[in-house]
Structure formats: C-alpha cells, structure tokens
Write a structure and sequence with these properties.
single chain; Thrombin, subunit H; 2 domains; elongated
Length: 428
Amino acid sequence: MGLPGRVSKDRVVRFPALACFGLLTLALLALPAADPAGGSGISSDPGSSLSRGTDVVWHELRTRPEVTAASWEKSDFLSAEPMQPEPAAGALFDLPTPGAAQNSAAEGAFLPTDTEEYPLRTNGKIFFRLGADEFQCSGTVVSSAGRNVLFTAGHCVYDVESGRYVDQLIFIPAYKGAGPDQSPLGAWPATAVFTSSSYVASGALSHDIGVVVLEDRIQDTLGARRIAFNLNPEGRQFNIYGYPVEPDPPYDGETMVGCSSETRGRDSTKGSPPPIAAGPCDMRGGSSGGGWITSGGYLNSVVSYGYCESTPSLCGLTFGPYFGDQARSIYTFPAVGGSLSPTVAIDSGPRGRISRSTATFRFRGSGSTPIRFRCRLNQRSFVNCDSPTTFRRLRSGRHIFRVRAADQTGKISQGAASRYFRVTRPRR
C-alpha cells in the first residue's frame, strides 16, 4: 500500500501518530474508577446496566456451506463494499486534552507483520451477500466449546435497513487481497449468525454485536483469542485490528491494519450500556467487526461506527459496543456454545510430611475468559483465593488442599486440583 513507517521491536510497521483532535461535538458519559489490573483485569464496570434487550436472536444461513465456499472468487472479494452504519452527530463530546493524550502509550495505526502466525491469524475478513450485493467486514476467532465461533459487529450479520440477515458468509483469516493467494489459511463458510433482539428491532449501536458460527472447527487449525466481559474500560489499552477501505489513501481493504489505542470515553447518545470510544484510530469502512484486543490478550469489543462523515474532527476515534452481560449472553447461547471448561494446576506447595505449621500453595489456570480461583482446605467451604495462598497454624495430622477455576460465564474446571500433606511436628 506504500504506507510509511518503520519496523519496531514488537514486529509491526508503525504509522505516524494521528494529529491532535479538534473541537468536538459529541457527549460521553464519565468513566468509572480505574481498573488497577490494567489490560487483563476483571473488575466490573459500574455503568454497564442493561434494562432490556438482552435476548439473543439467530438465523440459520440458507445457502449450504459447500455452495457458499464455491460461490466466492477473487473478483467478488475485490468488489465487495464495506458494511458500515452512519450515525448522526449532535450531542456534546468531551475528551482528554491533547497534552494528556500524549502521555498515553497509544500510538495509532500500524501495519502488523507475521499475520499468518498466532495470534494475528485469528483476525480476518468476512464476506457476505445481501441479495445480489456483496459486502465486507472484519472478524475474530474466539475460544469456544464448539471451536468454530467468530465475533464481529451486529451490522455485519443483520441489515436493519432491509430487515434481512446476511447469507453466503465466508471468513478468510489473515486475508491478503494484494497477494497471489488471498486466503493463505483457507476460506471458512458459516452456517448461522447471531445478534441481539435490540439491534434487530432498532439498530441500536450500543447492541451492535454479532456472532458467526462456522461449519468447521477453525480453532483446531488457527487457535483463538480469549474473550472478556464487564471489564472497567477507563484507561484500557487496545490493539484494534481490521481491514479498512477508508480513508483511501492509505487504506485499500486488502491488508490487515492495526491501531494501538486507548479508551477516550463513552458515547451517551447510543443507549445503554454506552459504547466505548478509542483512539487514536482512523480506520473506517471495512474495519467493522474488527476485534479490540486488550493488553492481556482478550477480545473486549468490536469496531462498530465512527463520526468521520458527520463530524470530521472525530476521525481519529473509533467506537465499539461495551462487552457486558449482553455480549456474554450471546456467547453463552446454546447454539453458540460458550466457553471451554477452564483448567487449573498446582505449581508448588507441600506434599508428604512437613514439620511446620505453615503451608503456601502456588497455582495457575487458563480459560476462554478471565478466571477466578476458589480454594478449600480439608472440609472447609470453597472460598475465593489468589496465588500464592498461605495457610497458617496448621494442626498435626493429614490435610488436603484443593483449588478450582471458574470463568466469567460460570463454567467451573472439571474437578479440582488437589495436594495431600501431613503435618508431623508443627513449630510456631
């Protein structure tokens, strides 16, 4: 694409930082208290209430997957139009001063390298049809029990204007439109799409979340991003990925682009929970549905809309739905499948005979979402705990320590990791 930049230590080509934002004309809600855990923390957002519209709606695609796969050719990919909403402007908007923004680690647009390697290969381009018209969006493979799930924007699976679901949807991870092979990691047809009833009913951009279920288990081949819900957005860092067509130049929709961005506020004009604004990021059409990845590696929003057409001073911001209870309800819908069971393992701690009255255990776990641990000593109840956990003033005799992991969807590890030990002569 002839994009200027340099190769940085994190193996990306970095674009020049976006210019400071001008006078702004949209309003955001104030952000809640900071999340001390940073990019991978799991503290909740006090402003994430959902009063209505958490029901999931879904649609089985009419075209058989093998017919869908055969129906797309290179010329179709190149001619597909970006699918994007165009929200009206009008309210007041408040952002940090330019000086405050300069203290951020966010640097704006960059060109990822090694896009066929994990985890970048979990990002890709979505193509679909509405009648005879062909469109494009972006999407991300997420960890799921069925190992075949993508997250994207709601407007990439349902068209509010025509009142129709998309058809003949195909996902191309690590899409490379400018190369001889546009689908280096294959083309993966979909069987069903999911979104919220609120988006279908009114096109509410606070509910602009879409899920795609593929015919085959793409996660077995590519891996997947983990996903997180109800994170506190204040000051959160994101890498946002997509295939923008605009602005042209420098973007042409044929190459994966990223933005190193951070939360700038919340858009109170689009309903509850208020969508998140992130910047600097100038990606527009074609990037819809692209994943917002936290510094901890979790998908935590998708590209939804921008105000560049109506309010040019906001061209350095992109907006995405807050991933709260609604996003979680779509993810856990039975036909989507939800999370894999989390795992837990004890790394260290006493076993066999010990002659002291103190025992410290270190453990770890993993899951499709952020996890919490629950520990138990002997016949006590399981309680929340962190690694390391220490027990003091232990009595002589046999003891058993157990730990479980639970994820944000309520799924618990299969069984508990355990360790037996015996205190012989405790010393205080």
